[in-house]
Amino acid sequence: MKKTLLFSILCLCTIACTAQTKQPMKRNKTADTSSGDNKVIFSAPLVLKTFVKKNGERTDLKEWYIQRSIQDYFVKFCESEVSREELETYLSDPSNPLKVAKLEVEFRKGNWDICDDNELMQSRVGEYAIIHRIIP
Predict the structure, then answer these.
(1) E strand or H helix at 85, and its extent?
(2) What's the pTM value of the predicted model, to 2 decimals?
């Protein structure tokens, strides 16, 4: 009994002495700012991705996505207040080589490809982003 107790105490002391305390990682991320009405302001990278059909066929069409730590969000321009041309003009600025923008965005869930609710057609469905404005 004494040997078991002594062995247990020795194991606990060894574990306690060798355990490392983990410090949370510090990130250089600024918090999103709410601007009301489910809109948030943040800086994020934007990327172009090739549109792939449901059958796996790649097309020549390129689509914009906002990269977030959780996932990439499709930019639905027909609901956005910023056009594709405005975004591409802003991102083509030589002083902004990384394709990062500070945006006011609203995240929604629904059809990506349908811009008129009265249309009957097959569409990709999921979470997407609409851009309200680019913040210089």
Answers:
(1) helix 84-91
(2) 0.71
